[in-house]
Write a structure and sequence with these properties.
Strands 5-4-3-6-7 form a five-stranded antiparallel β-sheet. It has a two-stranded antiparallel ribbon with strand order 1-2. The chain is 46% helix and 22% strand. It has five helices and seven strands, in the order ββααααβββαββ. It starts with a strand and ends with a strand. Helix 1 runs antiparallel to helix 2. The longest helix has 32 residues. With 195 residues, it is an alpha+beta fold. The chain binds zinc ion. The site of zinc ion has 9 residues, from loops.
Length: 195
């Protein structure tokens, strides 16, 4: 007894009694759906990175590392499900795990946006100094400013900034950093300016 690749129902013959698809048809349907969900997942990861540029958490590196460690194993899982489907092996459980992971980047992105957009508290201004800056090209270019830290247990902070600020600031410049507490307790950077 195998399960239908399309609907997951137990299937005794070549044609699934629940959805009416043959094993070849069910495989095609599954692969199409995998592809669609993978597109949704990749877009979600990009949206998440865009949200973390717009409302950058103070711990932006940890956040980006987290999304990276989610991204690649999830894609690997999608590939694994497809390989197994090609061999007509059991995919139901793996498929469900994969479908469960797909919305996570969207949810985390929404969390960062809610944390920033609805944060109405006045920012704390930290008077710091620029010690370096660097840019990383990519689908979403990431530009960072390295500044002295306002936190006792940290020496430096890495701040995501836009192109205008990136061109404007140079190592040695004084900089005012707007630190926001965040609606749901994720501290984020509201912006940088010259004192
Ligand atoms: Zn079926």
């Amino acid at each position: 007894m195998t399960r239908c690749l399309n609907c997951g129902a137990d299937r005794s013959g070549d044609v699934c009694k629940a959805c009416g698809l043959s094993s070849v048809g069910a495989e095609l349907f599954l692969r199409k759906r995998l592809l669609n969900r993978t597109a949704v997942f990749v877009l979600g990861a990009l949206a998440f990175v865009a949200a973390s540029v717009q409302y950058p958490p103070v711990e932006v590196d940890r956040v980006l590392i987290f999304i990276g460690t989610l991204f690649f194993p999830t894609l690997a899982l999608a590939i694994w499900v497809e390989r197994r489907a090609l061999r007509h092996a059991e995919v139901e459980a793996l498929k469900r795990i994969y479908y469960g992971l797909v919305p996570i980047p969207w949810l985390l992105g929404a969390l960062l946006i809610v944390n920033g957009v609805l944060d109405r508290d006045a920012p704390r201004i930290a008077h710091e100094r620029v010690v370096g800056k660097f840019a990383m090209a990519g689908a979403l270019p990431i530009r960072r400013l390295v500044v002295t830290s306002w936190r006792e247990d940290h020496r430096f902070e890495h701040i995501l900034i836009d192109r205008r600020d990136f061109d404007f600031f140079h190592p040695g410049d004084p900089v005012d950093v707007k630190v926001q507490d965040g609606l749901i307790g994720i501290p984020w950077i509201g912006g940088v300016s010259r004192p």
